[in-house]
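Appendix B. Chain record.
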Amino acid sequence: MSSGFTRAHLAILATAVLFSTGGAAIKACQQRVADLAAVIRVVPKVGPLKAMAFHPPTPQTEKLFLQSFDMTVDRYRELLAAERAGRLHIPDENFDLGEPSKAGAYKLADETYAKLVEYLAERDFAGISPELRNDILSFYKDRNAPIATKQDPKQWQKVVKALDSNLY
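Structure tokens predicted for this chain:
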């Protein structure tokens, strides 16, 4: 470990990984990571494999990383405090695009909404909150939009049927 990356940084990072995965991700891939590390150590770093050779970060790069890491942790703590105080507001937008989600604007959003509708329909929309219902209906308000799900007619019909029979 380099001198700039402290045990505190490592503890924060490890805690975040454990909380976000419940530790399952670590257990699931631990052996694969160990195997891959062994192969990378043994493989000669010449020719096309030269790119796999480890090059430690420069002091300037390390300093930028640590500043970024510290800023991220500070911002995360601010968000947690705002949530605890009941004043957290996260905009309802597609973070990849930086704008509100709307059908046909982003293929991944279209596919995700379709999967969500299908998942909820399998459970007869039991326990769905009014906010989620309104969000889904708002997303699908323009069915003439170029929604990616329409490329699979069977899936699109499932979505339409679920929307028409359970949400309106």
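Further analysis of this model is presented in Appendix C.
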